[in-house]
Design brief:
Helices cover 40% and strands 26% of the residues. It has 394 residues and is α+β, with helices and mostly antiparallel strands.
Length: 394
């Protein structure tokens, strides 16, 4: 907002400057001696800059983008650049032979009629903030003006892929709604030029990767922005990877070991704290929930599931009831199978030895609890790989 007010003040000062210069340049009360001054008096002394041409005219233009800034808090895009406009004014036609061979001259844009171009999806006002400039006027009535303008358009941001998001904003340019006593014009924006090597981004966070210009009743400019997400990669994936490891590592700790509960408690706390941090960083003006928040929400739910699994397996292994035959068959098969022993890291006989190195009776319940943990480890590894790929694939 401060930048906009500053530009408005500068525009007002420039306007006063041009008005003073124009008053000095035109001397309608006397006959000037300079050839160009005579031509200007002939054309502009009785010229009404508010009335404009008497018939429908075509205004063609080209937009040259010099700088832009995307405001993630209010979803606005501010574009600054040059608007190269050209039209024919029938009141500014002369014969060069009758005016010492002068074929063109330069005059302030404040002294002649200009088309009232507006930005229909402007974030602040429908007027385009363009600075006064000098225009080239040719003998056939062609007027060429290239003012520097600033557009502040309202965008509809989509933060689903934050911080790998791409925003599509558009500038809807056209004329005002004219009444019957005002001469209308047809505005056509031929092209939009963006030089990637020279265009300046105010916060250096975004770059324009694509632009499309469509001209119909109004001219529509689509600008596709892409965020520089390199710094966010470490910022996001180190916490995500660390919390994933906590969950997977807990499945290799025995349910009777208090360290397992500590690991899962740290995981839940880490998820919650980081989600609160993301909520304070990610803009809230989009229509979609960022995929990153969905990832940490789902990972938090997996942590809670592991806590529930730990409680259930611990109560099952600590029970004194007779072990069901099905569980005994499964654990016996896994103990006597080489692949099953690798899956369980070591057999249940090696797991449960007393201080005298005597083999205790097999604990089918504990072995079955280990089997559940290993199965969950494989399933969660697959789930986390899918979730990570969903974050990376754009």
């Amino acid at each position: 907002m401060k930048k906009v007010l500053f530009l408005i003040e500068i525009s007002a000062l420039l306007m006063v400057h041009y008005l003073i210069n124009d008053a000095a340049a035109l001397n309608c009360g006397s006959e000037p001696t300079a050839k160009e001054a005579k031509l200007k008096n002939h054309l502009l002394c009785d010229y009404d800059q508010d009335s404009g041409p008497d018939s429908l005219i075509n205004v063609t233009a080209a937009l040259i983008v010099e700088s832009f800034a995307f405001n993630r808090y209010d979803g606005s895009l501010t574009v600054s650049g040059w608007l190269n406009m050209s039209w024919t004014d029938e009141h500014l036609v002369w014969e060069p032979a009758e005016h010492d061979g002068i074929k063109s001259f330069v005059e302030s844009s404040l002294s002649i009629w200009q088309p009232d171009i507006s930005l229909h999806n402007n974030h602040i006002t429908s007027n385009i903030n363009c600075n006064p400039t000098n225009c080239r006027i040719k003998s056939n009535g062609t007027v060429i003006c290239i003012p520097s303008c600033m557009f502040a358009a309202t965008c509809i941001p989509d933060y689903y892929r934050w911080p790998f998001d791409k925003q599509v904003c558009h500038l809807l340019l056209g004329g005002y709604a004219y009444y019957d006593d005002v001469v209308p014009f047809i505005f056509t924006l031929l092209k939009t030029t963006i030089e990637q090597n020279t265009v300046y981004s105010e916060n250096m966070e975004w770059k324009i990767i694509e632009n499309t210009t469509i001209s119909a009743a109004n001219s529509l400019v689509f600008l596709k922005l892409e965020r520089h997400a390199g710094v966010y990669t470490i910022y996001i994936f180190i916490p995500a990877f660390s919390l994933m490891l906590l969950n997977l590592l807990s499945l290799w700790v025995d349910t009777e070991n208090y360290q397992r509960i500590i690991l899962l408690a740290l995981s839940v706390s880490g998820h919650w704290i980081y989600m609160q941090h993301l909520y304070s960083v990610i803009p809230h003006n989009g229509d979609t929930v960022p995929d990153l928040l969905i990832y940490f929400r789902d990972s938090l739910l997996l942590s809670l599931i592991l806590i529930v699994n730990t409680i259930i397996v611990h109560r099952m292994t600590a029970g004194s009831k007779q072990t069901p035959k099905l569980i005994e068959r499964i654990t016996t098969y896994m103990d006597n199978n080489r692949i099953g022993q690798l899956f369980l890291t070591q057999s249940s006989e090696q797991l449960y030895k007393n201080e005298d190195s005597k083999v205790e009776p097999k604990s089918a319940r504990k072995t079955f609890g280990n089997i559940i943990d290993r199965i969950l480890f494989v399933l969660l590894s697959i789930v986390y790989v899918i979730m990570m790929l969903d974050l990376l694939l754009i």
